[in-house]
Amino acid sequence: MSDYNFAYLDEQTKRMIRRALLKAVAVPGYQVPFASREMPMPYGWGTGGVQVTAACLTPDDTLKVIDQGADDTTNAVSIRKFFEKTAHVATTEKTRAASVIQTRHRIPEEPLTADQILVYQVPIPEPLRFLEPRETETRRMHALEEYGLMHVKLYEDIARHGHIATAYAYPVKVEGRYVMDPSPIPKFDNPKLESAALQLFGAGREQRIYAIPPHTRVVSLDFEDHPFEASKADHACDLCSARHTYLDEVITDDAGGRMFVCSDTDYCAGRQATGHHGRLSPQEATA
Amino acid sequence: MRDDTLSGGFADPPVDAAHAFRAALSALARPGRIETLTGAQAPEPVSPAAAALLLTLCDAETPLFLAPLHDTPALRDWIAFHIGAPITPPHAAQFALGRWSDLPPLQGFPIGTADYPDRSTTLIIELDRLTAQGARLTGPGIETEAHLSLPDIAPFRANRALFPLGLDFYFTCGTSLAGLPRSTNVEDA
């Protein structure tokens, strides 16, 4: 017997979130307003994602939580513990073993399956917000499909830098209709937005929920002469030698030393366990 | 007060509703997939799947329309006790329940507004038969194509043409549940 209702939220709140989730699925990429609740963690720590996860979890689920790809960072650990305590669900660090994955700013390297749900924590859900601060205006722009301003922004990138300099939260068009902010994932992850898994986005402070159903067309905005490119650091992982994964740069001393490691810790550990070694792998592992 | 007014709710509401919602979410995210929904029993003629859907999604904040054959005193009492949803005419309904042949014209239900396409009715339609055969479905949630025994084609094509506005549908038969969001293209098989 727990002192908490299953998955923390009361039933009426869950029904409200669930109704918003279903409308979000029905209109891919459209931001559905919802009555976000105070959660026992500050805004910016994933209150939107936590509420979406709470509304989706069943006792049979296995939950994985990642923060920038890592299972062992503060945000990931605290959210995992939160649901262990309030929903008594099994948790895992293995992408493959999870049925629900809550993520902050990454998509796991391993392709997701139809049985999985990916829940994103979203800080600013409105892709047009930094171009137009008024909610009444951005809402009207979405209604009229008036996205010229976004292309102007990308064009100004090219005019100023010679290429599209937006490296994360790269805007996408969902099913040919709504321009959507994929949350601050690196643009390296954008191609993975077309997935077999259901993807749900929760913005707690901004009180918005949106979704990408499985196999939905998701196109990163670009120009014919400046096509979208999923870029990453031009290195191999220093622990597992992967060249196809998104890398974090880690400063190792104050003399310019640095290493590149996979941002997805579970994927990197899996590769190391199957015998892949990188430039900086521990000696006993390479011996 | 009848016996079946008080019975037929979820045995363990938080957990049963969680399972029911996942089935409903999966059904709407993958049009054509048929899910099983149990754990609830409303008075005749409501199917167990439709009863579970009502318990999971509706409450005092969601005006509900009942088609004539479903608008019985027994069901009104059951809804009043378990759900508390106000019963309304179509133009104010957030949810609607009825048999396909018994529903008023779909034009009477709200389809949302250009600014808020989510403010539209979700219809729960009771069918005698629900199988993964029949009309051809394509669109979000479907890898190549899916099939579903829809009761008609033209109304759902017209609904798709309204996108991003439009109605969203659940079909129920016994304990079976399938979804058809407004984003799905419907064609003759």
Automatic annotation (TrEMBL), chain A:
It is an enzyme of class 4 (lyase). The keyword Iron-sulfur applies. Keywords: 4Fe-4S, Iron, Iron-sulfur, Lyase, Metal-binding, S-adenosyl-L-methionine. InterPro entries: PhnJ (IPR010306). Its EC number is 4.7.1.1. GO terms for biological process: organic phosphonate catabolic process. One of its GO terms (molecular function) is metal ion binding. The keyword Ubl conjugation does not apply. It catalyses: alpha-D-ribose 1-methylphosphonate 5-phosphate + AH2 + S-adenosyl-L-methionine = alpha-D-ribose 1,2-cyclic phosphate 5-phosphate + methane + 5'-deoxyadenosine + L-methionine + A + H(+). Belongs to the PhnJ family. Catalyzes the breakage of the C-P bond in alpha-D-ribose 1-methylphosphonate 5-phosphate (PRPn) forming alpha-D-ribose. This is Alpha-D-ribose 1-methylphosphonate 5-phosphate C-P lyase. It comes from Aquicoccus porphyridii.
Automatic annotation (TrEMBL), chain B:
GO terms for biological process: organic phosphonate metabolic process. One of its GO terms (molecular function) is lyase activity. Pfam families: PhnH. InterPro entries: PhnH-like_sp (IPR038058), Phosphonate_metab_PhnH (IPR008772). Keywords: Lyase. This is Phosphonate C-P lyase system protein PhnH. The gene is phnH.
